[in-house]
Amino acid sequence: MKIYDWITAAEKAILILIAFFTIFSVGIEMYAVLINGKIALTDLLLMFIYAEVLGMVAAFYKYNKIPITIPIFIAITALCRLIILQGKGISTIDLIYESGAVLLLALSAIIIKKAMSTKESGE
Length: 123
Known about the structure:
By secondary structure, this protein is an all-alpha fold. The chain has helices spanning 3-36, 41-63, 69-86, 92-121.
């Protein structure tokens, strides 16, 4: 077996573990929400991150590659969740930095999406 085959097999095994751990984490989060009897916006954003991670694993198995925009969306969601978790106690400069990071990630997703559509159309 070639080194490439070993690396590919390891990559697929790691992605299966990521999917399993993500589903397990969703179960734990849902259990915590049920026990607390309420759901917060941060809980929903965390579930959204889990869904995006599963989508990324599914995209790998469907297309044999991970679209770069999915991790960007995960990062945007994670930053938004961080901003919400920090609440009103966040310093102004930190809020500006984190908001700027969200803006840069959103712009990069738009640029990548546009470049990919241009590449696919053959222009």
